[in-house]
TrEMBL record:
InterPro entries xref list: Amidohydro-rel, Hydantoinase/dihydroPyrase, Metal-dep_hydrolase_composite, Metal_Hydrolase, Metallo-dep_Hydrolases_sf
Family: Belongs to the metallo-dependent hydrolases superfamily. Hydantoinase/dihydropyrimidinase family.
Stretches assigned to the Amidohydrolase-related domain: 57-445
Record-given protein name: Dihydropyrimidinase
Organism the protein comes from: Flavimobilis marinus
Pfam families: Amidohydro_1
Length: 471
């Protein structure tokens, strides 16, 4: 089965140009001179399907390296299953997710990993891989890290917050980092000082401050910066590469930049919510409305310039990529759990469907270049997490994960039209310059012309190698 995408501008992380893309079954087999017929008329008569991309961008499928489908958290479960969440991702031009298998304190890592496989198997519309959350560092879980690398899980997330649930103390962090420095794994860090936050939360609640905005006010930037700095120093001490997830404070991004400037293998991601939304406008919305935007790290004050700094850091490669941290909770029955106390609002925002569109607005507004958009949404995630070559690039031999993006199209984000299993949109009313027209996942057209043609079970598990991004 041959598919030929003609007339488009192929955009890569290093540049762009007119080219046609030939796909055979699940793989890209050639990138051709536009309309060249290089392969000869006879051969091209054998093309089963042509996709006209005239006036549009042809980019590698998006990779969202941070999602939480069906994650048990805050007394409930993230509302997207692997089935609904990967379908929504496909609608937005994402063709691979890296989700987090979760070990809570006291659980067995490999048992939980097997359970995560069971949840995802046969359900996904697009390809998927796993990171492993280690919520209890001990001899058994440390040994499991070696086993997991053989299973294609080369990155491990630790938490410096959420006591008795996830939190690792500094000694545990050092032990996990020592292990990663030996086995080649990448240590991912939720960098917030949890014991300080717990005290600030308690004091706020004692003062009767229960509104959602206090979620942000009790997680001030110092708690993120301090934890980020501590993680960087422990990474230096142990020689383990470090990847800081969901960076929102400019001071934390600055610590990451400093570490990178000294040659350390330290990396960071930010998320669309930290690029576009703020503490004042969203988290501080009247009444309980702000609960829609309760996530950790929290949205930051626009008056302090965090959002603009995140764009700046992406521009200069102080931060390497954008993931969504997709962890949706419905208002009804989920966010509602925290009506009487911000501390009981499940933490998370749903954006898996909107990442390419939201980051593309940075191209439209001149914050980043077209190639940088592709780099931070598609190519770097593949390199960072050991999938590059197969994923993240339009080149012969790569999986045929391709998006045709129309820069002249328009997309209006709304709960009425999104495909996530979520009863509100954190992005309600956002007007996007640009539109995901066609999405191909390993050769299968899953989205075309506003229609879904995919199916649960098309997506397969990707065994990742070690990071290809290390210095
Ligand atoms: O609020 C968030 N980020 N929820 C998901 C869990 C995490 O810490 O990434
Ligand atoms: Zn986290
Ligand atoms: Zn997360
Ligand atoms: Zn159709």
């Amino acid at each position: 089965m041959y598919t030929l995408i003609t007339g488009g501008t192929v955009v890569s992380s290093t540049g762009s140009g007119q080219a046609d893309v030939l796909i055979e079954d699940e793989k890209i087999v050639a990138v051709l001179e536009p309309g060249s017929g290089v392969l000869g008329a006879t051969f091209l008569q054998g093309v089963d399907r042509r996709i006209d991309a005239t006036g549009k961008y042809v980019i590698p499928g998006g990779i969202d390296a941070h999602t939480h489908m069906e994650m048990p958290f805050g007394g409930t479960f993230a509302s997207d299953t692997f089935e609904t969440g990967t379908r929504a991702a496909a609608w937005g031009g994402t063709t691979t997710i890296v989700d987090f298998s979760v070990q809570y304190t006291g659980e067995d890592v490999l048992e939980r990993f097997a359970a995560w496989h069971d949840k995802a198997a046969g359900k996904c519309a697009i390809d998927y891989a796993f990171h492993q959350i280690i919520g209890g560092v001990d001899d058994v879980s440390l040994a499991a890290m070696d086993t997991l690398i053989d299973e294609g899980v080369s990155s491990f997330k630790l938490f410096m917050a959420y006591k008795d649930v996830f939190l690792s103390d500094d000694g545990q962090i050092v032990r996990a980092m020592q292990r990663a420095s030996r086995n080649g794994g990448l240590l991912m860090m939720h960098a917030e000082n949890g014991s300080v936050i717990d005290v600030l939360q308690q004091q706020a609640l004692e003062r009767g401050e229960t509104d959602p905005i206090h979620h942000g006010l009790t997680r001030p930037w110092q708690t993120e910066e301090e934890a980020t700095y501590r993680a960087i120093r422990l990474s230096e001490l142990t020689g383990a590469p470090l990847y800081v997830v969901h960076v929102s404070a400019k001071q934390a991004a600055m610590r990451i930049a400093e570490a990178r400037d000294t040659g350390q293998n330290v990396f960071g991601e930010t998320c669309p919510q930290y690029l576009w939304l703020s503490l004042e406008e969203q988290l501080g919305a009247p009444g309980f409305e702000g609960s829609k935007w309760v996530c950790s790290t929290p949205l930051r004050a626009r008056v302090d310039g965090h959002q603009e700094h995140m764009w700046q850091a992406l521009r200069t490669n102080d931060l390497q990529l954008v993931s969504t941290d997709h962890c949706p909770f419905c208002m009804k029955g989920q966010k509602e759990l925290g009506r009487n106390s911000f501390a009981a609002i499940p933490n998370g925002i749903g954006s898996v469907e909107h990442r390419l569109d939201l980051v593309y607005q940075g191209v439209v507004t001149g914050k980043i270049s077209l190639s940088r958009w592709v780099e931070i949404c598609c190519t770097t995630p593949a390199r960072m997490f050991g999938m590059y070559g197969t994923k993240g690039v339009i080149a012969p031999g790569a999986d045929a994960d391709v998006v045709v993006y129309d820069p002249a199209g328009r997309t209006r984000i709304s709960v009425d039209t999104h495909h996530m299993n979520l009863d509100y949109s954190a992005w309600e009313g956002f007007e996007i310059d640009g539109h995901v027209d066609t999405v191909i996942s390993r050769g299968l057209v899953v989205i075309d012309d506003g229609e879904y043609h995919g199916h649960a079970g098309h997506g397969k598990y990707i065994r990742r190698g070690l990071s290809q991004y290390l210095i």
